[in-house]
Amino acid sequence: MGDLIYLYGLIPTQEVITKELPPKIAFDGIGDIYTIPIEKTTAVVCKLSSKQYTEENMKEKIHHDIDWLQEKAFHHHETVMELSKMYTVIPLKFCTLYKNEESLLQTVKSNEEKMERVFRLLKGNEEWNLKIFCDDHLLRNVVNQNNSAIEEKKEEISHLSKGKQFFEKKKLDRLIDQEMEAEKQRISELIHSQLEEFVIHGSVKWNWNKDVTGRKENMNWNSVYLISADKVEAFLEKIQKYEKEMSKMGWQFETTGPWPAYHFSSFS
After folding, report:
1. What is the pTM (predicted TM-score) of this model?
2. How far apart are CA 120 and CA 195, in angstroms?
3. Which domains are present in the chain?
4. For 8, 52, 66, 200, which has the most beta carbons within 10 A of its beta carbon?
């Protein structure tokens, strides 16, 4: 049985001709990463022993060996990051394996037109991520003082007897929470729409919980954007403006990038 082919990413062959791939140790820590030209596309790969890296062995490592997983996932991420700084790259997911070179060649050739479209989309552009966090305590106070529905409820309660006020105030607390959540969503959607003037494509992702972020504030928005390199500075300046204007109301913004364009390249 021959070696497996581990695929990191795909780059235009013309770019590899112009700028040679620098040497780098492979996934197994022994071999080297190398390229396979496939007409207009070049695959960045390494070989893995099919005896050592069986499907069962890989599943066992991924699910039960956290040290191995962290080491190998970091290796993959760093390799793809380096590629994205040098070339227009279609990044592949962690542990994308092919049985042999022929299998890889057939897959790439059958997707040639699709990949050319993706290369054109990605060339000269960068992927950036925006996460919006909110201090619920601060925003709740703002909403409590500046919301017409809440003001109407307070006015209604003020005319009730003390006995009825007790129960209605509990309803008021729930109303404030509901209005605060609605405000968080409204503001986040507004910011997302305003950022469209700087971006080519934008996509909204699932929010992470506090166990993942390690922050005390709730994540309220998680979006990713494909941005022309010449508009990145204006994009970041716009977010800095939001931060300056909105921080006292509990809003916090976290931008990261540029990343390999995982979210805007559809080859798998």
Report:
1. 0.84
2. 22
3. 4-123 (no CATH), 126-264 (3.30.70)
4. 8
